[in-house]
Design brief:
Number of strands: 19
Structural class: alpha/beta
Distance between the termini: 34 Å
Strand content: 15-25%
Length: 397
């Protein structure tokens, strides 16, 4: 890690912090690892976890990657107009203006697939057509949560209301019978497996409980997902894709015969929440640097800003982590501040005013909502600078 810090400091010496970088060697190595773990099934890139068109283009040029999983309809249409093909919107939308654009543009309609798990969503899309007659491509989503004790205990995100294969088949039938719509895919995101680390530092008992839960959940979901796919294919024999998985479950999900493609994105940047997995070890690729602006006393420095919490249930694990130099920690009375952040530890005494402290964000793409550009580092040089979504004036959520 010491050598990485020296590389990053040399590469960005001509730039003022705060700044964000992506280490391209680590990014590419992580991409190769995702492909390896996918075992021959294509990886659909989750744009939410990247939020930079240049890096989306870079990864999609690599063998083993195909298509984008987007997070808002406005983003989907923008990416489609930018030349990206096969964009799957992973969440239902109430963007009436966007649906009007989609239904009136043959290229957009052929490129973008929207998510549906309720007939009311079809009604909203129909009402937004504004005379547009293009066929809307539809993906159905299966609820992946694990239900225990007769459903009294639930593990997993509250996403789709469609849990049973018969429910998926019924909605598929309703879509197919409705003019102007066509079912092309099925999605099931097992966030309680793919997005929950099972090797928590200093918490062996909790880690074991998580591994047992995930093993149970994988077995239950694999069976129910296969049944759901059979039920939907009975209605839609030419179903184009079945999407599943996430960075933390690539190999396990790819092993299911019913799944045709894997979704992943965070595994490219490898933020701090992905340090706690037994199934893989990635290389931190996305970092941000904050400058030292104060030295309040022995064992303390203050950096500018840095209070970039991640989404999800609030907690210490949602904060960025001081990464380089090693050995720095937050002051528990202040934490990560909006304008300034005190950092404690013996490493602080070696830092001078103007030096950088390198951080890792808790999540992946959310870092890009804080910076206009990503400086792309190869070795000890910045070889390119790419705008983030924010840098292109696009803030979709």
């Amino acid at each position: 890690m010491t050598s990485d810090r020296a590389r990053y400091d040399r590469a960005t010496a001509h730039l003022d912090a705060p700044l964000a970088i992506v280490d391209l060697d680590a990014f590419d190595a992580n991409a190769d690892d995702l492909v390896r773990r996918a075992g021959g099934k294509p990886v659909r890139v989750a744009s939410k976890s990247v939020r930079c068109r240049a890096l989306l283009e870079r990864v999609l040029e690599r063998p083993g990657f195909a298509g984008i999983m987007s997070y808002t309809l406005a983003e989907s249409l923008w990416l489609a107009r930018s030349g990206f093909e096969d964009v799957l919107l992973a969440y239902p939308s109430a963007d009436r203006a966007g649906f009007g654009e989609l239904a009136q543009d043959a290229k957009l309609a052929a490129t973008v697939t929207v998510m549906v798990d309720d007939p009311a969503q079809l009604d909203l899309i129909e009402g937004a057509r504004g005379g547009g007659a293009e066929e809307v491509r539809v993906c159905l989503e299966l609820d992946t949560a694990l239900h225990l004790l007769g459903g009294r205990f639930r593990v997993g995100a509250r996403r789709s209301p469609l849990r049973e294969p018969g429910q998926l088949a019924a909605l598929a039938r309703a879509v197919q019978e409705r003019p102007g719509f066509r079912v092309v895919g099925l999605m099931a995101y097992e966030g309680h497996i793919a997005g929950v680390g099972d090797d928590l530092a200093g918490r062996p008992l909790r880690s074991r409980v998580i591994r047992l839960m995930q093993a149970t959940a994988r077995r239950e979901l694999a069976e129910r997902r296969a049944e759901a796919v059979r039920a939907v294919r009975a209605v839609v024999p030419d179903l184009e894709f079945v999407n599943g998985g996430g960075t933390g479950s690539v190999a396990e999900t790819a092993a299911e015969d019913a799944v045709t493609e894997i979704a992943a994105g965070s595994g490219l940047y490898v933020p701090r929440l992905f340090d706690n997995y037994t199934s893989f070890r990635g290389r931190p690729a996305a970092l941000f640097a904050q400058p030292v602006v104060r030295r309040p006393g022995v064992g303390v420095v203050t950096v500018l800003g840095g209070g970039y919490p991640a989404s999800g249930a609030a907690g210490a694990d949602r904060l960025p982590v001081p990464y380089l130099p090693a050995g720095l920690r937050y002051d528990p009375q202040e934490g990560a501040g909006e304008v300034q952040t005190p950092l404690l530890g013996s490493a602080a005494d070696d830092l001078l005013i103007g030096d950088r402290v390198w951080f890792r964000h808790a999540k992946a793409g959310e870092l890009c909502e804080r910076f206009d550009t990503l400086h792309l580092v190869e070795g000890d040089r910045v070889t390119a600078t790419a705008p983030t979504y924010r840098g292109e004036g696009r803030t979709f959520l």
